Each structure stands twice: as structure tokens, then as C-alpha cells.
Amino acid sequence: MTLSPELYNSRFLRATRCEPTDTTPIWIMRQAGRYLPEYMQVRSQVQFIELCKRPELAAEVTITARERLGVDAAILFADLLPILEPMGLDLEYQKGEGPVIHNPLSTPSEIDRFRELEDPGELGYVYEAVRLIRRDLPADIPLIGFAGAPFTLASYAIEGGGSRNYVATKSWMFRDPSAWHALMQRLSVSLVRYLKAQIAAGCQAVQIFDSWAGCLSPADYREFVLPHTKAVIDGVKDEVPVINFLTGNPALLPLQREAGGHVIGLDWRVDLKEGWATVGHDVGVQGNLDPVSLYADLPTLRKRAKAVLDAAEGRPGHIFNLGHGVMPDMDPQNVIALVDMVHEMGQR
Ligand code: CP3
Fold it and tell me: Is 304 a catalytic residue?
């Protein structure tokens, strides 16, 4: 991708290359979500899935959130799961229940119903949103695209929704490794096509969300997941910086690093200094304030944000974020205050 000098030298993209910045860049996972009145206003008129599929609305909520918070990057408004529709699954977002798949791949024998994404154009509404967002974002603000990692998507495809213990997913994996690898390969091939189309439409970086892979032991992550996540990252890493994000299991950090990424996303369960030492200072890190810190009073929030900055020791390559997404009932003023604090305290 050819980048304008403004984008190339933006705080966020410099940090993905571990280059020094004037202050620490910050963005917030789920920054365009339900805690924002502007989002709820748009959302009161359309269902969530419709919002994802209407590029002009998706672009509006992306841009409004970026402006309102003053963060250093925008993230595309979309969702992890719609890619599963053209692959053969019937997806619905139910009020108060979260996503539901009506025809999950409950057993390995059902794998034949699960097709590769042959034509990434079936998700054309996503790339159209990317084009509109890129057109209207300030020239020095990068746009982050994203996708789910193969494991996290497989868990929805198999469980049919969220899960506590991933019993169906892991049983598949343990009982029929060859069907499991076939499933993961269909996902990884599809994800590379999808991400490349996002990049071609105008994303300057991508984040891979392996939100639920923390339920695995290191040995199982290595055998059943790592090669597939690595295939996705390898497929796009020469085009744009990749953020490899996983939650819930710091014991997986060395393997997460092995799977790849210019930046490793850390949740709050690991001390940032230790986590960075574990993955190596030749990659960047993103994180890792506990999202619940935003419920504290502002002086406490400031102390907690400072602790994260201190753990990064002013090293180039730190992108400030929460360890996971912002909660839906958060007061936007606290999020704005956090962004200002990080920009102020992160100055070199
Ligand atoms: O970060 C951003 O602002 C970009 C947009 C984004 C959304 N979801 C919007 C959304 C991103 C990056 C996601 C990722 C996502 N989606 C994940 C990974 C999550 C993570 O934080 O690690 C997962 C597991 C999904 C699937 C999904 N989508 C779930 C489980 C839910 C229900 C969540 C809930 O608490 O109800 C969604 C819906 C969703 N995705 C909403 C938003 C703003 C809320 C939708 C609404 O009701 O308006």
C-alpha cells in the first residue's frame, strides 16, 4: 500500500513500526459502541446487522466516535461474524442474547455445509464502508480493519453462539483433528481474502481478534490454532501492520508472538512490562488497562493509566488501549478523559 506522508508519519502507524512518537497513541476497542449516545441514536432506527450492512451508517458511527474521543485511529464499524453468512451459516443478532447461529456445525460430519468464501465481494458492504470512512477521515488518522481469528470464528460456527467452556468446539477438535484442520483452513483462506479486500478498499492496519482462544492450553493452541492464525497473518503482513489480539491467557503469549503480528494485543491479566519482555521488544504491544478502571473516579483512573504508561517505559511501539472492549454503560466523558490523560502523560 502506498501511504500519504501524513498517514505514514501518524502516531499510530509509527508505533506499529516501533518508531518514536511525540506522545503515546491511543484508541479504544469498541470505541463506536452502545455507550455513545450518537451510536444509540443511529441504532434506534435500525437493527445492528442492518447498521453493519448500510455503509453510510457504518461510516457515520465510525467517524463520529473517532472525532468525539480524539483517538489516534479509527476502527471500521462492522462485526466479526457476518463473514460466516456467505460461508453457509444463518446468523441473527437477538435482542439481549447476542449473536445466534441457527444452523451451527454441531458435529464434524457437518463440515461439508461450510464453504470457503470464494467471492469476498459478498461482503461488499464492508469495503464500501471502508471507502466512505477513508474519504471522510482526517488525512493523518489511520483506519484499522479487522476480522476474527479462525479459532474465535470456529467457536461461534460450532457452538452457535457465545459459550462458557467451549465444550462442543474442543470436542470437535479432540475427536476429529482432520475435520478440525479442514474447518480452520477454510476459515483462514476466507479471512485472508476478506482482509485483503478491506486493505484494498483503504484500511491502513488490521487487527485479528482471537478473543476466545484463551480457553486453550498452550499445547492445544500450538497444535490446533497457531498454524491457522499464522496463515491469516502471513497472508496480509506484507501489506499492512497486523495487531494480533487474544484475551484471557498470558501463558499463550510466546505462542501468540510465534503466530505473528507487528503488534501484540495484551489484556490486563498480564503486567505490560512483563508481557512486552515475553513477546520481545522487536514487536509493538497494544493495551492493556482493565476496562473496569473507567468506572473509578478520575484521579484513580489517572493513576491506573499512568501505571500502564510506566510499564511501557516510554519505549517506542506502545499503543495504549483497554485490555478488552469498553463496557456498554460507560460514561463517554470518562473515555474522553482517559484519551486526554494518555496524550498528556505519554509526552516525551
Ligand atoms: O471496536 C469497534 O468499535 C469496532 C466494531 C466491533 C464490534 N464488534 C461492534 C459491535 C468489533 C471490532 C467487534 C468485534 C467482535 N464481535 C468480537 C470480538 C470482541 C472482542 O472484544 O474481543 C466478537 C466476539 C463479536 C461478536 C459479537 N457482536 C457479540 C458477542 C456481540 C454482542 C455483544 C453484546 O454485548 O451484546 C456483538 C454485537 C456488537 N458488535 C455490538 C457492537 C457495537 C453491539 C450491538 C448493538 O446491540 O448495538
Answer: no
